[in-house]
Amino acid sequence: MSTWFRDLPPDCVALADVAVAVIAGAALIRATRRFRQPAVIWEIATGIILGPSVLGLFPGHLDTRLFPVAQRPTLTAMSELGLVFFMFLAGWEMNPRLLRSGRSAVAVTAVSAMAVPFLMGAGLAFALASDHRGHTSTSAFVLYFGTTMAITAFPVLARILRDTGLDRTPVGVLSMACAAVGDGIAWCLLIVVVAVAGSHGAGQVWHTMLLAAVLGSLLFGLVRPLLARWAAGTEQEGAPEAEPGEQRPDMAVDTAGNRAFLLTGSFALLCGCATAWIGIHPILGAFAAGLVMPRTVGPRIREAVEVPLARASTLLLPVYFIVTGLSVDLKTVGWAGAGELCLIVLVAVAGKFVGAVVPARSFGISWQESGALGILMNTRGLTELVVLGVGHDLGVIDDRLFSIMVIMALVTTAMAGPLLRLIGIQAPGIPESPAELADAPALSGSAGTAGPDRA
User: Fold this and answer.
1) Which stretches of 278-330 are DSSP H helices?
2) Distance of CA 415 to the CA centre of its chain
3) Predicted local confidence at residue 447, as pLDDT
4) What is the Cα Rg of the chain in Å?
5) Between the chain's N and C termini, which has fewer beta carbons within 10 Å?
6) What is the C-alpha to C-alpha distance for residues 72 and 119, in angstroms, rounded to an integer?
7) Is the predicted pLDDT of residue 282 greater than 70, yes or no?
8) Domain boundaries, the chain
9) From CA 391, how far away is CA 402, in angstroms rounded?
């Protein structure tokens, strides 16, 4: 068997690994539908099962045979392509209109829901640094760990709100706005973390931050107006009206949609390339590209862009879960790690809950809705996994803390549905895989548009 694996061409192994990742994730999601949990839970679990934590327990090192070490750079590159498209769509999904109503409530609650868990996480980081800091400075570790504790996954939150019917309620709009603001702050903090962790001095940090500021200014000051002019013409762009009695031709729709898809996809990739060039992770460039995309694009053209990008993300993101799962080894956690896991989950949940509930109550929101807000702000999902992957790749955290934090992301995301039902808010189900989101109609009004996220 081992000889047969070695004799396979590398391209064959890589393609087979992608197929295994997609099929295994889909099968587990299908088998666990009755648990009414987000698809991301089972996709992360699939990666852990196929990694050293479960498959690696069997004789013969099945995890390394199925996913050879030599093929992992290829799998990582493919998974990052899916992440770039995912982050681009997540940025495009954010609706600025969420921030226009109740600005004071949004500002206070968003900052509080971000600051409280960040500060609590930073305090805990000082206690964990001696055992879990990688080869970076303590300041980078503390800043990074605080950021991971403050994450809220905006796209999966949008799906939960729609499935629970909260998307048009005041608490739903408030939670979406707070998550949008919080995500923006979190990605800015991550830029600082990446700059600090990857630098060899204060001068290089400031150089990276300056380049990031210049890139952001170009995107929002120059590229965004050009994209807005393009979007203004997309409402009428498409196939001509058919003559009476004739079938409407689809050629013009295909041409305009394909052109928009190719240009938009290339724009996301180039922005990711730009941030990678200046020393920041490519996903941050893709997210910024999504933020500057106009929301006034015609529905026909927007669908032509979003659907294929979401499909590509659907195909490639399971590979990311496998790559992540191969880095998670629960055997290294041990009893000491179990205690740390409980403490980290407690701090993460309490920080978000207190940070969201207290300001919500001060603005007159009921206890039930304030509690729902605190629960919703604790959803972390794929967004947390992406941030953890960046920190792990940079060597900010060690392997054991990475495994613990992945479990924390699973627990805090999985608890949303049951806790909402516990306080009397029924959730019919939270399927939220990118394929299902691509098939679903766009979220209307305050909730934004349907995106790719499991996040």
Assistant:
1) 282-292, 299-327
2) 18
3) 38
4) 22
5) N
6) 36
7) yes
8) 2-235+253-447
9) 9
User: How far apart, in Å, are the Cα atoms of 68 and each of 5, 25, 71, 255, 328?
Assistant: 9, 19, 5, 41, 16
Measure Cα distances from 40 to 43, 83, 280, 379, 451 in Å. 5, 14, 26, 11, 14
At position 137, the amino acid (one-letter code) is S
Q: Mapped to the 3 state alphabet, what secondary structure does 109-164 carry? A: HHHHHHHHHHHHHHHHHHHHHHHHECCCCHHHHHHHHHHHHCCCCHHHHHHHHHHH
Query: CATH for 2-235+253-447?
Result: 1.20.1530.20
Mean pLDDT over 260-275 rounds to 93
The residue count of the chain comes to 455
| Cα(225)–Cα(78) distance, integer angstroms | 32
In whole angstroms, what is the distance from residue 369 CA to residue 80 CA?
37
What distance separates the 2 farthest-apart alpha carbons in the chain?
A: 76
DSSP per residue over 197-210, as a string?
HT-SSHHHHHHHHH
Q: How many Cα neighbours within 13 Å face the side chain of 377?
A: 40
By three-state DSSP, how is residue 236 classified? coil
